[in-house]
């Protein structure tokens, strides 16, 4: 029986496409033969804005690159400028940065956990995930006064020291939170319905992931053990013991949607381990190097990348010696991660499209910039 192909627009609709993303699908009945991402609905020109502002002024804009991991974006930009100007960051500030970055990684992965369940038809996971995430946001709020876009990092350190009681509250939260991860796994990770929906769909072979420049949990879900915190250690990550989880094919196929999901759940446990060590080892001292308000780094260029929840976030900056960057470019992991979608959704069912897109964990402001 011969069928007629159809062109279907999926999105741009925020709940199902994780942002204002439009997927143009070519379908043969219920089977997707081709899918083309159509981006740009959220383009704001962040890189050009950065060239019109001085180095300090651009920090709040980095919050808007990936609003689910704003601390991590702050940190990557600060490290790039510090390398450009050869600024030495106080050790206490380095520890605080790592604590905030790992808490933000957990918060980001909790959103992923909740939405993964929602896309498979389960409501409870998003309630549980957001319940724990709220406490992390409470910790951020007591530190810098904000709950989503923080503007906490500074060139040379952080804006303020940890408030009184932060370490105690952080440790209390970790004691409460660790058993919850096991509860999440019992609820969703090894749920038979969820497994049946997630295994063996959206399979991304390691060579395909590398060819597309895929990074972060999506790359590690394909079995590639690459994490900048280990492979090109920065800040004080080399002082901590932690593992880099990868997809193992425990269930399904290495590189499928379930393995990408499982890597993120394992990363939550590793982030807890890092934070516990950082809270115990954090030294006393200053939290910010002396950097003038009128800040003019020497002429030169620099590229710095960091391991964000969605992969490698890179900043390329060219300085001409003035107070503003001459050129500023951002390498956002979600751009590469969504590019591979057209390859891994071929010959899959329409019903699996949202699950596969969700397993890539893209954030559209990061793609469009």
What is the topology?
Layout: E1 6-10, H1 14-17, E2 22-28, E3 31-38, H2 46-52, H3 59-62, H4 70-85, H5 91-119, H6 124-144, E4 153-154, E5 157-158, H7 166-189, H8 192-198, H9 206-211, H10 217-221, H11 228-231, H12 257-281, E6 300-308, E7 311-319, E8 327-331, H13 333-339, H14 341-344, E9 348-349, H15 350-360, H16 364-368
How would you describe this structure to a colleague?
The protein has 16 helices and nine strands. Helix content is 49%, strand content 13%. The protein has helices at residues 14-17, 46-52, 59-62, 70-85, 91-119, 124-144, 166-189, 192-198, 206-211, 217-221, 228-231, 257-281, 333-339, 341-344, 350-360, 364-368; strands at residues 6-10, 22-28, 31-38, 153-154, 157-158, 300-308, 311-319, 327-331, 348-349. A hairpin with a 2-residue loop joins strand 4 (153-154) and strand 5 (157-158). With 369 residues, the chain is an alpha+beta fold. It has a single domain, classed as Cytochrome-c3 Hydrogenase, chain B (Orthogonal Bundle), CATH 1.10.645.10. The protein starts with 5 loop residues before the first strand and ends with a helix.
């Amino acid at each position: 029986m011969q069928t007629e192909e159809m062109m279907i627009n999926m999105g741009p609709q925020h709940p199902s496409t994780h942002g204002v993303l439009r997927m143009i699908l070519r379908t043969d009945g219920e089977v997707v033969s081709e899918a083309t991402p159509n981006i740009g609905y959220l383009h704001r020109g962040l890189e050009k804005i950065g060239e019109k502002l001085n180095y300090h002024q651009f920090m709040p804009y980095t919050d808007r690159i990936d609003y689910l991991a704003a601390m991590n974006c702050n940190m990557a930009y600060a490290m790039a400028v510090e390398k450009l100007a050869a600024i030495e960051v106080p050790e206490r500030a380095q520890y605080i940065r790592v604590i905030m970055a790992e808490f933000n990684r957990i918060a980001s992965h909790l959103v992923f956990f909740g939405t993964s369940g929602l896309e498979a038809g389960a409501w409870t996971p998003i309630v549980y995930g957001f319940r724990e995430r709220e406490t992390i946001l409470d910790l951020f709020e007591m530190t810098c006064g904000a709950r989503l876009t923080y503007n906490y990092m500074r060139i040379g350190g952080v804006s303020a020291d940890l408030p009184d009681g932060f370490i105690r509250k952080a440790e209390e939260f970790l004691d409460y939170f660790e058993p919850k991860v096991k509860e999440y796994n019992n609820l969703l990770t090894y749920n038979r319905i969820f497994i049946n929906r997630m295994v063996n769909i959206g399979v991304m072979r390691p060579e395909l992931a590398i060819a597309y420049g895929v990074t972060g949990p999506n790359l590690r879900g394909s079995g590639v053990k690459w994490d900048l915190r280990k492979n090109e250690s920065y800040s004080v990550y080399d002082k901590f013991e932690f593992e880099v989880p990868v997809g193992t094919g425990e269930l399904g196929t290495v590189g499928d949607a379930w393995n990408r999901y499982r890597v993120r759940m394992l990363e939550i446990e590793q982030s807890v381990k890092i934070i516990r060590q950082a809270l115990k080892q954090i030294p006393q001292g200053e939290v910010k190097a002396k950097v003038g308000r009128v800040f003019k780094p020497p002429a030169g260029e620099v590229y710095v990348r960091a391991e964000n929840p969605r992969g490698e976030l890179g900043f390329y900056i060219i300085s001409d010696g003035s107070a503003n960057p001459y050129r500023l470019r951002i390498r956002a992991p979600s751009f590469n991660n969504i590019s591979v979608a057209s390859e891994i959704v071929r010959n899959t069912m329409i019903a699996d499209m949202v699950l596969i897109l969700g397993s890539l964990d893209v954030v559209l402001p990061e793609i469009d910039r």
